[in-house]
Amino acid sequence: MYKNQTNPASLNTALLLTGGGARAAYQVGVLKAIASTLPRNTPLPFKIINGTSAGAINATALSCYASCFHLGVKKLEWVWRHFHTSQVYHTDFVTVFGHIIGNMLSSFQSNYINHPPASLFDNEPLRGLLKQMLDLQRIDRNITLGHLKALSITASSYSSGDSVAFYQANGIAPWQRAKRRGENTTINIEHLMASSAIPMVFPSIKIRKGYFGDGSIHQHSPLSPPIHLGANKIFIIGVDQPSNNKYFGFQPHYPGISTIAGHLLDTIFSDTLRADIERLERVNRTVSLLPSRDKHQELKRVDTYVINPSQNFNAIANQHFADMPFAIKTLLRMIGVKKNSESSLVSYLLFEKSYTKHLIDIGFQDGLNQQNEIKAFLELP
């Protein structure tokens, strides 16, 4: 049944979901818009799924339901529409400030003691949510049945400084490039925890003998994993929001810690993707100028389609700032984050349903607005 429904163009079409913490709710809205144009029993229109940070969790959830695109999107949407911050990291006063005090005290311990990972928040609740919501054994089943070709999850190695794409696939050899590599493995919860461990915000994760953090760090070439996995088309759902000119130009004060932290996160999650797409476009132009006999086997044209938010998430997060748990608001105020502040930090950490619903609705509308272009790119019926 599914073989007859599979679009041949999807066999080498990849989906790339970038990072962005709570902003990843936007991705669900775009996916919902695509699913709304297809029959209910249609499998995923992407055979290669790639995710980084919060996008890695969305990517894995879709891979678990690769045989039915509608079902995967529906389950993702249910989680994001009913989110509470306490499902991602601890939000009660005792745990929040106890965690910070524990980090401070551990810095006075001897170096030979294995200290717990330092972070602003303890995201252990996320591990429990992932175990509850994801049946990871379905990924291997979907690969075997042909509903999925490959799933890759990108994490950053604090031990080597490499960007590591942990991928699950059959018959695809690992790769090694400068500061990036691909490792064939069976995706598990620890890979997702590592990929979504925002630096300084959530603790690093140990995988085998190395320590890993958010996949957006050191990711100089975010398009590399889908290309190595065989993609000739990459559909990218980003979280690079339009600029808010309110903060441009003359500023009477030095930027605070919160503003700088938000700026760093914006850089980590957005800038490298734009640069990599520019490089790919230059390669495509070079390939188009070469005679067929001179084209190297590894040099091929790869087309991309990028959809980013049409609205500014910082402004939307400020509207919902009051919905954050009181302990979290107190802690953020201590580092200069409050309602209507210039920092974008809140837009990454606000895992509350009032905010995530808003982002889903924006993604859905953006997807509908570009429906014809998306269907043409994906060659959907």
Automatic annotation (TrEMBL):
<feature type="active site" description="Proton acceptor">
    <location>
        <position position="214"/>
    </location>
</feature>
<dbReference type="InterPro" id="IPR016035">
    <property type="entry name" value="Acyl_Trfase/lysoPLipase"/>
</dbReference>
<keyword id="KW-0443">Lipid metabolism</keyword>
<dbReference type="Pfam" id="PF01734">
    <property type="entry name" value="Patatin"/>
</dbReference>
<feature type="domain" description="PNPLA">
    <location>
        <begin position="15"/>
        <end position="227"/>
    </location>
</feature>
<protein>
    <recommendedName>
        <fullName>PNPLA domain-containing protein</fullName>
    </recommendedName>
</protein>
<keyword id="KW-0442">Lipid degradation</keyword>
<keyword id="KW-0378">Hydrolase</keyword>
<dbReference type="InterPro" id="IPR002641">
    <property type="entry name" value="PNPLA_dom"/>
</dbReference>
<dbReference type="InterPro" id="IPR050301">
    <property type="entry name" value="NTE"/>
</dbReference>
<dbReference type="GO" id="GO:0016787">
    <property type="term" value="F:hydrolase activity"/>
</dbReference>
<dbReference type="GO" id="GO:0016042">
    <property type="term" value="P:lipid catabolic process"/>
</dbReference>
<feature type="active site" description="Nucleophile">
    <location>
        <position position="53"/>
    </location>
</feature>
<feature type="short sequence motif" description="GXSXG">
    <location>
        <begin position="51"/>
        <end position="55"/>
    </location>
</feature>
